[in-house]
Design brief:
Helix content of chain A: under 10%
Largest interface: A-B, 29 and 28 residues
Low-confidence stretches of chain B: none
Number of strands of chain B: 11
Shape of chain A: globular
Mean pLDDT of chain A: 93
Shape of chain B: globular
Order of helices and strands of chain B: EEEEEEEEEEE
Largest sheet of chain B: 7 strands, mixed
Structural class of chain B: mainly beta
Oligomer: heterodimer
Order of helices and strands of chain A: EEEEEEEEEEEE
Number of helices of chain B: 0
Low-confidence stretches of chain A: none
Largest sheet of chain A: 6 strands, mixed
Radius of gyration of chain B: 13 Å
Structural class of chain A: mainly beta
Distance between the termini of chain B: 37 Å
Radius of gyration of chain A: 14 Å
Mean pLDDT of chain B: 93
Strand content of chain A: over 45%
Number of helices of chain A: 0
Strand content of chain B: over 45%
Distance between the termini of chain A: 41 Å
């Protein structure tokens, strides 16, 4: 079974600075997807960024980028120029590329609560 | 925009009560999911449905059942609520296939006393 580990329960960063959230995962599969989701306080979970395992290039979405190290099974999220609106719980998640029904579930890490200091 | 709605944001029930949590999506998604979110544990899958009347157990199905009679609606049922089912419950939906992202509802915070 796949597992996802986020070893930083809480992180804080000064506004406008850069912060990196860590995520490691364990799988025997070679084809899969990795995600970072953001859950703002009392608001819905939204997708921040997605990485396909077969792509060597790291995904980027505006101020958000990932460092995907497939051999090391590491998938960190870098937030540049942090803004107050980035304060949230961030979840790393894994999904198999298998089309078998149950494989379409997301496997989540424990979450990292990010605080932005003004 | 995809919209996933859940019937209640907050719910308080007594031990032994039957509890229904409703989820509705408006984008004709094949897949629907129920997750449970607990501090320090992240989200864990309770049940998954990939079509009307079709369901699969997730990682923690004990004490729960589900119903999907219509494509847009997925219900989570706690047959006899217990205090250890106090948690945040999140519904999600997606198109079929693993490449598509899951869209989440706002969550229902259930307290069982």
């Amino acid at each position: 079974a796949q597992t996802v580990t986020q070893s930083q329960p809480e992180m804080s960063v000064q506004e406008a600075e850069t912060v990196t959230l860590s995520c490691t995962y364990d799988t025997s599969e070679s084809d899969y997807y990795l995600f970072w989701y953001k859950q703002p306080p009392s608001r819905q979970m939204i997708l921040v960024i997605r990485q396909e395992a077969y792509k060597q290039q790291n995904a980027t979405e505006n101020r958000f980028s990932v460092n995907f190290q497939k051999a090391a099974k590491s998938f960190s999220l870098k937030i540049s120029d942090s803004q107050l609106g980035d304060a949230a719980m961030y979840f790393c998640a894994y999904r198999s590329a298998s089309r078998r029904g149950g494989a379409q579930k997301l496997v989540f890490g424990q979450g990292t609560r990010l605080t932005i200091n003004p | 925009d995809v919209k996933v709605t859940q019937s209640s944001r907050y719910l308080v029930k007594r031990t032994g009560e039957k509890v229904f949590l409703e989820c509705v999506q408006d984008m004709d998604h094949e897949n629907m999911f129920w997750y449970r979110q607990d501090p320090g544990l992240g989200l864990r899958l309770i049940y998954f449905s990939y079509d009307v009347k079709m369901k699969e157990k997730g990682d923690i199905p004990e004490g729960y059942s589900v119903s999907r009679e219509k494509k847009e609606r997925f219900s989570l049922i706690l047959e006899s609520a217990s205090t250890n089912q106090t948690s945040m419950y999140l519904c999600a939906s997606s198109l079929g296939g693993t490449v598509y992202e899951q869209y989440f509802g706002p969550g229902t915070r259930l307290t069982v006393t």
